[in-house]
Amino acid sequence: MMVFPFSSDQFNIAYDVELHGLGAVLDPNRFTREVFLDRLAFLLGRRNEVELGRWREHLSRRGPDFAVRKIQGTQDSVGSVARAAEPACMALPRR
After folding, report:
1. Which helix or strand (DSSP H or E) is residue 18 part of?
2. Among 29, 43, 37, 32, which Cα is nearest to 1's?
3. If both were cysteines, with which of 49, 66, 76, 83 could 62 make a disulfide (CB 3.0 to 4.6 Å apart)?
4. CA 69, CA 57: separation in Å to the nearest integer?
5. What is the C-alpha separation between 79 and 31, in angstroms, rounded?
6. pTM of the full predicted structure?
7. Distances in Å between the alpha carbon of 7 and those of 11, 28, 51, 64, 78?
């Protein structure tokens, strides 16, 4: 996978892709034809089907609804804490 990050979280994602050996990162504003071809040749020469299969399985278990479930769980927890704290807040002396 060749990653060309342009803004925001794309830089972090690109870093993770390269860190875990899933691809290469190129600066979309500065790469040359030679650098592109070099990185492409490197990636094609080191295909690791086992590693890619492991990541494919890991990511497919999460899917797009994974973050939604995590956010909803966090909101439920925060809401429960806030509701539990309400009576204690009402007992505080007013200034």
Report:
1. helix 10-19
2. 43
3. 66
4. 19
5. 48
6. 0.52
7. 7, 11, 28, 21, 31
> What was the pLDDT predicted at 38?
92
Q: Do residues 29 and 6 touch, judged by C-beta distance below 8 A?
A: no
What are the boundaries of each domain within the chain?
2-64
The average pLDDT across 34-59 equals 82
Instruction: Tell me what percent of the chain is helix, strand and coil, each rounded to the nearest 5.
Output: 65, 5, 30
What lies within 8 Å, CB to CB, of 4 at 6+ separation is 14, 25, 26, 27, 28
Confidence class for position 80, pLDDT limits 50, 70, 90: low
Produce one character per residue of 45-59: b if its CB has 16 or more CB atoms within 10 Å, e if not: eeeeeeeeeeeeeee
**Which residue type does 32 have?**
T
